[in-house]
């Protein structure tokens, strides 16, 4: 029987704190950038301008249909050579994760917008609103309410996806766990703790999402 | 009842519109004098709603001319489609009321009515609110100003929608089956608001199945079928003594149901 020894991990407490901080910062960055990219791509997919639609479609499908791990590695090793630029591991990670998340956000945002009754846009147009005014004042405020639960879900997935950046030696929670495991020869305790930390950070978020969905269901 | 230059307020000429291969309007012309009330009647699929939506260019015609007041647009081969800015400016001068109200559910009744003046006309909030409250009072809903649409009855929703359209101080009002989605007992309150508007001298085009109302309030009635104007004339004359067999057949249905007084 294996003898668990969690007490010895206390030495590495600051490593875990730092790792969790990097993971959290990454999540915030890729969620914010991903949402902006997703909004642009989602709107482009609804555009009357055909090339914009094609471009957005191509982007969404490429990033949805290739594994995130492959994208990370490609952005870190291949892109710098092809584009002739230097890109740090953090830069490549933020770029890949944001674009990957953006492709899913785009579909959620597009779906939210088209789910709003046509009559809303017609009423706004009949009042003399331009399409941009109609979107900002009438369509998006309603669509946003419907988008929030799936956007939150996707963001939770993005939180977990940040663990993949450890392959590029970005010092996130999982990477710091690996460092501690190599140092302590206590991988069972370490990886168990890493899993518990992810869970502890995410479970409250899923609870918030569920509350949000219930509120949404009762409000209209 | 024409303006100083002797022109009609609304003038539609040789309008044509197809959806795919389906020709919905074929060479339709229509003129409404200032202060005039015209009712468009006809069976479903006759093109009357499409015609109404062409007047504020919610539906862009394939060919023909649309003029409301001083704003005129020409459509067809060799003409450029109006840009979104020009379209928006044009629509701001026409009010439209929809069958399903299309109130903005995330805004209160008051905010619904203020939305056009604030966003489109850039009116200061206080001024827009004063105008909106006055209009809600006019449609008998002063006490519902702070309610969200989900808390209003169908008739109340439609009256808010009328106030919302009036808030833009439009030159003309377009009603697209404004009472068709209402429970029978709620139709009266909406019709009485429309009746008061007509009495105030508002230029109105009404798509309706309320034949008795059309007879009473409209100056002229236009009967459409399969995208063409079959018969047009003074409201009472056309409804009480239709000339064309199609009009007779259509109206006979209503007479049988006792919805219009017999001739």
From TrEMBL, chain A:
<dbReference type="GO" id="GO:0022857">
    <property type="term" value="F:transmembrane transporter activity"/>
</dbReference>
<dbReference type="InterPro" id="IPR035906">
    <property type="entry name" value="MetI-like_sf"/>
</dbReference>
<comment type="function">
    <text>Part of the binding-protein-dependent transport system for glutamine; probably responsible for the translocation of the substrate across the membrane.</text>
</comment>
<feature type="domain" description="ABC transmembrane type-1">
    <location>
        <begin position="20"/>
        <end position="209"/>
    </location>
</feature>
<keyword id="KW-0813">Transport</keyword>
<keyword id="KW-0029">Amino-acid transport</keyword>
<keyword id="KW-1003">Cell membrane</keyword>
<keyword id="KW-1133">Transmembrane helix</keyword>
<comment type="subunit">
    <text>The complex is composed of two ATP-binding proteins (GltL), two transmembrane proteins (GltJ and GltK) and a solute-binding protein (GltI).</text>
</comment>
<dbReference type="InterPro" id="IPR043429">
    <property type="entry name" value="ArtM/GltK/GlnP/TcyL/YhdX-like"/>
</dbReference>
<dbReference type="InterPro" id="IPR000515">
    <property type="entry name" value="MetI-like"/>
</dbReference>
<feature type="transmembrane region" description="Helical">
    <location>
        <begin position="190"/>
        <end position="209"/>
    </location>
</feature>
<dbReference type="GO" id="GO:0043190">
    <property type="term" value="C:ATP-binding cassette (ABC) transporter complex"/>
</dbReference>
<keyword id="KW-0812">Transmembrane</keyword>
<comment type="similarity">
    <text>Belongs to the binding-protein-dependent transport system permease family. HisMQ subfamily.</text>
</comment>
<comment type="function">
    <text>Part of the ABC transporter complex GltIJKL involved in glutamate and aspartate uptake. Probably responsible for the translocation of the substrate across the membrane.</text>
</comment>
<dbReference type="InterPro" id="IPR010065">
    <property type="entry name" value="AA_ABC_transptr_permease_3TM"/>
</dbReference>
<keyword id="KW-0472">Membrane</keyword>
<feature type="transmembrane region" description="Helical">
    <location>
        <begin position="74"/>
        <end position="100"/>
    </location>
</feature>
<feature type="transmembrane region" description="Helical">
    <location>
        <begin position="20"/>
        <end position="44"/>
    </location>
</feature>
<dbReference type="Pfam" id="PF00528">
    <property type="entry name" value="BPD_transp_1"/>
</dbReference>
<dbReference type="GO" id="GO:0006865">
    <property type="term" value="P:amino acid transport"/>
</dbReference>
TrEMBL record, chain B:
<dbReference type="InterPro" id="IPR003439">
    <property type="entry name" value="ABC_transporter-like_ATP-bd"/>
</dbReference>
<dbReference type="GO" id="GO:0016887">
    <property type="term" value="F:ATP hydrolysis activity"/>
</dbReference>
<comment type="similarity">
    <text>Belongs to the ABC transporter superfamily.</text>
</comment>
<dbReference type="InterPro" id="IPR003593">
    <property type="entry name" value="AAA+_ATPase"/>
</dbReference>
<dbReference type="InterPro" id="IPR050086">
    <property type="entry name" value="MetN_ABC_transporter-like"/>
</dbReference>
<keyword id="KW-0067">ATP-binding</keyword>
<keyword id="KW-0547">Nucleotide-binding</keyword>
<keyword id="KW-1003">Cell membrane</keyword>
<dbReference type="GO" id="GO:0005886">
    <property type="term" value="C:plasma membrane"/>
</dbReference>
<protein>
    <submittedName>
        <fullName>ATP-binding protein</fullName>
    </submittedName>
</protein>
<dbReference type="GO" id="GO:0005524">
    <property type="term" value="F:ATP binding"/>
</dbReference>
<feature type="domain" description="SEP">
    <location>
        <begin position="216"/>
        <end position="263"/>
    </location>
</feature>
<keyword id="KW-0472">Membrane</keyword>
<dbReference type="GO" id="GO:0015424">
    <property type="term" value="F:ABC-type amino acid transporter activity"/>
</dbReference>
<dbReference type="InterPro" id="IPR027417">
    <property type="entry name" value="P-loop_NTPase"/>
</dbReference>
<feature type="domain" description="ABC transporter">
    <location>
        <begin position="10"/>
        <end position="251"/>
    </location>
</feature>
<keyword id="KW-0813">Transport</keyword>
<dbReference type="InterPro" id="IPR012989">
    <property type="entry name" value="SEP_domain"/>
</dbReference>
<dbReference type="Pfam" id="PF00005">
    <property type="entry name" value="ABC_tran"/>
</dbReference>
<dbReference type="InterPro" id="IPR017871">
    <property type="entry name" value="ABC_transporter-like_CS"/>
</dbReference>
<dbReference type="InterPro" id="IPR030679">
    <property type="entry name" value="ABC_ATPase_HisP-typ"/>
</dbReference>
């Amino acid at each position: 029987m294996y003898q668990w020894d969690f007490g010895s991990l206390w030495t590495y407490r600051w490593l875990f704190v730092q790792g969790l901080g990097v993971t959290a910062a990454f999540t915030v960055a890729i969620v914010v950038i991903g949402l902006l990219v997703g909004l642009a791509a989602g709107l482009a997919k609804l555009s009357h301008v055909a090339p914009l639609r094609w471009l957005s479609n191509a982007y969404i499908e490429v990033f949805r249909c290739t594994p995130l791990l492959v994208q990370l590695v490609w952005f870190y090793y291949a892109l710098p050579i092809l584009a002739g630029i230097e890109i740090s591991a953090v830069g490549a990670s933020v770029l890949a994760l944001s674009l990957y998340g953006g492709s899913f956000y785009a579909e959620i945002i597009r779906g939210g917008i088209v789910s709003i009754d046509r009559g809303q846009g017609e009423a706004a147009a009949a009042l003399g609103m331009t399409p941009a005014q109609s979107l900002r004042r009438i369509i998006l405020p309603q669509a946003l309410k419907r988008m929030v639960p799936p956007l939150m879900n996707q963001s939770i997935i993005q939180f977990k996806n940040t663990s993949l950046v450890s392959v590029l030696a970005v010092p996130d929670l999982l990477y710091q766990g690996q460092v501690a495991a190599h140092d302590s020869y206590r991988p069972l305790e370490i990886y168990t703790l890493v899993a518990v930390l992810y869970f502890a950070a995410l479970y409250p978020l899923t609870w918030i999402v569920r509350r949000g969905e219930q509120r949404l269901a009762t409000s209209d | 009842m024409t303006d100083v230059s002797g022109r009609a307020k609304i003038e539609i000429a040789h309008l044509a519109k197809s959806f795919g291969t389906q020709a919905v309007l074929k060479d339709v012309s229509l003129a409404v004098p200032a202060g005039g009330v015209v009712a468009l009647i006809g069976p479903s699929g006759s093109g009357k709603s499409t015609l109404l939506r062409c007047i504020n260019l919610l539906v862009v015609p394939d060919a023909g001319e649309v003029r409301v007041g001083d704003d005129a647009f020409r459509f067809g081969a060799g003409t450029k489609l109006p840009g979104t800015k020009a379209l928006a400016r044009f629509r701001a001068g026409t009010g439209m009321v929809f069958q399903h109200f299309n109130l903005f559910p995330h805004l209160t009744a008051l905010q619904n009515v203020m939305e056009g003046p604030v966003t489109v006309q850039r009116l200061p909030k206080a001024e827009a609110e004063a105008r909106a409250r006055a209009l809600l009072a006019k449609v008998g809903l002063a006490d519902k100003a702070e309610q969200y649409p989900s808390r209003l009855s169908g008739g109340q929703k439609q009256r808010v929608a009328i106030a919302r359209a009036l808030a833009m101080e439009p030159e003309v009002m377009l009603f697209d089956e404004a009472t068709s989605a209402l429970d029978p007992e709620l139709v009266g309150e909406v019709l009485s608001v429309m009746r008061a508007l007509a009495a105030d001298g508002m230029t109105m085009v009404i798509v309706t199945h309320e034949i008795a109302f059309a007879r009473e309030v409209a100056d002229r009635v236009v009967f459409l079928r399969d995208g063409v104007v079959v018969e047009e004339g003074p409201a009472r004359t056309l409804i009480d003594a239709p000339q064309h067999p199609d009009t007779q057949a259509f109206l006979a249905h209503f007479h049988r149901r006792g919805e219009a007084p017999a001739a």
